[in-house]
Amino acid sequence: MVQVKLQHVNKSFGKTEVIRNVDLEIQKGEFVVFVGPSGCGKSTLLRLIAGLETLTSGEIAIADKTVTDLPPSKRGIAMVFQSYALYPHMTVFHNMAFSLDLQGFPKKEIRARVEKAAKILQMESLLDRKPAALSGGQRQRVAIGRAIVRNPDVFLFDEPLSNLDAALRHDTRGEIARLHSQLDATTIYVTHDQVEAMTLADKIVVLKDGEVMQIGKPMELFNMPANEFVAGFLGSPKMNFFDGVLGIIGSEGNIAGFSGQGMALENIRLVSTEKKSGTTARLGIRPQHLELNPKGWLKGTVTLIERLGTETIIELMSPEKILFRYATSEQIDLSAGQEARFSFDIDKAHIF
Amino acid sequence: MITRTFSHLVLALIVFIWVVPFVALVSTSLRSETEAKTSGFWTAFTPTVLGHRFSTHDRGTTAEFVDMSGNIFERLNGEKSGFPVSGEVQSILIKTRIADPENPSKTKLIRKLVPAGEPLEVRGGSFVYQSNGDFTWTFPEATAPKPKKLDAFINQDPVFGADAYIEVLFDNKKVPNALISSFIVTIPATIIPITIAAFAAYAFAWMTFPGRDWLFVLVVSLMVVPTQLAFLPILQGFSGIASWATALNAWLTDCEINDSCQVASKSFASLWITHTAFGLPLAIYLLRNYIVGLPKELLQSARIDGASHLQIFTRLIIPLSVPALASFSIFQFLWVWNDLIVALYIGPNNSSDLVFPIRLQKQLGTFKDQLHLLNASAVISMIVPVIVFLSMQRYFIRGLLAGSVKGG
Question: pTM of this prediction?
Answer without folding.
Answer: 0.79
